[in-house]
Write a structure and sequence with these properties.
This protein has 412 residues and is an alpha/beta fold. The chain has 14 helices and ten strands. The protein has four domains: 106 residues, no CATH class; 143 residues, Rossmann fold (3-Layer(aba) Sandwich); 87 residues, no CATH class; 29 residues. The radius of gyration is 24 Å and the shape is globular.
C-alpha cells in the first residue's frame, strides 16, 4: 500500500514593514518537517498590495513543494480560476519530465475568483544584469519585435536567487551596475528580496516559478511579466529547465500574463544587438560562481564564454571584465561539467561560423576537447564504482576488491 501523502496548506501572514519594503508571506504547513515553514518576499512599499488575501503568487511559489511532498494543496485565500487551469497543464508537463520526483496535486482555495484590478501600467521585466535579460529589456523597449512588443515600464531584480539572501551588501553592490543599465533606458529598476531558495528545493527546476512569484506580487501595477530565455528553440529542445518556452506561460493567469521571450535568438545574436549599448558593455554581470558575486570573476566558464563572444564581436578591455583572458588562462580551464562543455562548444561554433581565426579560437577548441575527455573518464570511473557496489552487495568484500581494483587500474 502506498504511503498517504499530507495536504499542503498555505495561510497568508500579515504584511510586515521592513524599512522601505513590505514583506508578504505565507505559512506552509504539511511539509515533512514538523514545524511550518514561512515563504516570504519583500517588495517596495510604494507597490503595496491592496488585495493581500489574493495568494496567486504564493500558489505559484509553493507548487513544486506540493508536487514533491503532498497529495493536495489548499489555499486559505483567493486564487484565480484561470491560474488554476494553467497550473493543471503546468503540472502535467513537469510530472512527465520528472515522474520520480513530482506528481499532480489537486489545488483548492477558500475563494476561487478572478481579481478585479484597475488600470495598470503594462509590462514588468525580470532582470539579472546578464545578457538574456538585457536583450529582452532592450528589444521590447525599442519595439524591435515585429508584432509582439510589450514595452516594459519597469524591471525587477530579485535578491535571494544567485546572491544568497544573507548577503544583502553584496546584492546592493550588484544593483548599482544593473541600475545603470536599466536607467539608461529611462526605466526604473525595482528590487525584491525572498527566501524562496531556502524553502523550495531543486533550483534548476523551480527557478521559473520563483521568478514569477516575485513578479506576480506586482500584478496590481503591471499586467504582464517578461522572462528572458536562456536557450534558443533549437538548443532547448525539450530541456526540463526551470524557465522554458513550454511552461513559463502556464504560470500566468487571465489578469497577469507571463511571456517567455527571446528563444528565436542565440547568444551571438543577442550580443550582436547589444554591443553598441554603452551601459551594457560597462555593467554586464553574468557570473554566479565567483567568490565576489556582485562582479564577474573572469575565470569561470560563463565569464569566459561571454568574454570570448564579446571579443569576437570586437569588444575588448571591457570594464565589466577587468581581468585579461590569455591563451594560457584558457588552457588552464579543467574540470568543466558536461553542461559547461556543451555551452562552451555552442559558443565556439558561433565564433567559428562568424569567421574569427585568431589563435585563441584554436585554444578554445583544445580546451573543450580536453574537458570532454576528462568527463568521459569520470563517467567510466563512476560506472565501475557502481558495478563494484553491486558486486559487493551480491558477493561480499573479499570477492569484490580484487576484480574492481584490476579494472580500475586499467582505466586511463
Amino acid at each position: 500500500m502506498s504511503k498517504q501523502l499530507p495536504t499542503l496548506v498555505i495561510r497568508p501572514l500579515d504584511p510586515i514593514r521592513c524599512g522601505g519594503y513590505l514583506r508578504y508571506g505565507v505559512s506552509v504547513e504539511g511539509l515533512p518537517s514538523a514545524d511550518p515553514k514561512t515563504l516570504w518576499c519583500e517588495i517596495p512599499a510604494a507597490y503595496e498590495r491592496k488585495q493581500p488575501q489574493r495568494l496567486d503568487p504564493f500558489v505559484v511559489g509553493t507548487l513544486f513543494l506540493a508536487m514533491r511532498y503532498a497529495d493536495k494543496l489548499h489555499v486559505h485565500g483567493s486564487v484565480a480560476p484561470s491560474l488554476l487551469k494553467n497550473l493543471g497543464w503546468f503540472q502535467t508537463t513537469w510530472t512527465q519530465w520528472f515522474p520520480n520526483a513530482y506528481h499532480r496535486v489537486d489545488i483548492t482555495a477558500d475563494d476561487v475568483s478572478e481579481p478585479t484590478l484597475g488600470e495598470r501600467q503594462g509590462a514588468v521585466a525580470a532582470f539579472s544584469g546578464g545578457v538574456d535579460s538585457c536583450f529582452t529589456l532592450y528589444q521590447h523597449h525599442h519595439r524591435r519585435h515585429e508584432r509582439d512588443n510589450h514595452p516594459p515600464q519597469a524591471a525587477l531584480m530579485v535578491h535571494g536567487f544567485d546572491i544568497p539572501i544573507e548577503d544583502r551588501d553584496v546584492f546592493d553592490r550588484a544593483v548599482v551596475g544593473s541600475r545603470r543599465i536599466v536607467e539608461s533606458l529611462g526605466l526604473p529598476l525595482l528590487t525584491a528580496h525572498t527566501n524562496f531558495r531556502q524553502i523550495v528545493p531543486a533550483w534548476e527546476q523551480s527557478h521559473g516559478a520563483a521568478l514569477v512569484m516575485a513578479l506576480m506580487l506586482f500584478d496590481e501595477h503591471f499586467d504582464v511579466a517578461l522572462l528572458a530565455s536562456s536557450w534558443t528553440f533549437n538548443e532547448q529542445g525539450v530541456r526540463p529547465w526551470g524557465s522554458n518556452v513550454m511552461t513559463d506561460k502556464l504560470l500566468g493567469s487571465q489578469s497577469f500574463g507571463v511571456i517567455h521571450d527571446g528563444s528565436r535568438y542565440n547568444r551571438w545574436d543577442k550580443m550582436g544587438a547589444l554591443v553598441q549599448w554603452q551601459a551594457f558593455r560597462d555593467n554586464l554581470r553574468v557570473c554566479w560562481e565567483g567568490e565576489q558575486k556582485d562582479r564577474n570573476c573572469c575565470r569561470c566558464e560563463k565569464c569566459v564564454r561571454n568574454i570570448l563572444l564579446l571579443r569576437a564581436l570586437g569588444c575588448r578591455n571591457l570594464k565589466c571584465f577587468p581581468l585579461e583572458l590569455s591563451d594560457d588562462a584558457l588552457r588552464r580551464m579543467n574540470g568543466l561539467s558536461k553542461k559547461d562543455v556543451e555551452t562552451l562548444e555552442i559558443a565556439w561554433h558561433q565564433i567559428r561560423d562568424a569567421g574569427v581565426t585568431e589563435s585563441w579560437v584554436d585554444t578554445l577548441a583544445e580546451t573543450i576537447a580536453r574537458n570532454r575527455r576528462q568527463n568521459r573518464g569520470i563517467r567510466r570511473y563512476g560506472r565501475l564504482v557502481y558495478k563494484g557496489w553491486q558486486h559487493f552487495r551480491s558477493h561480499g568484500i573479499q570477492r569484490t576488491i580484487g576484480p574492481v581494483w584490476h579494472r580500475l587500474s586499467r582505466v586511463g
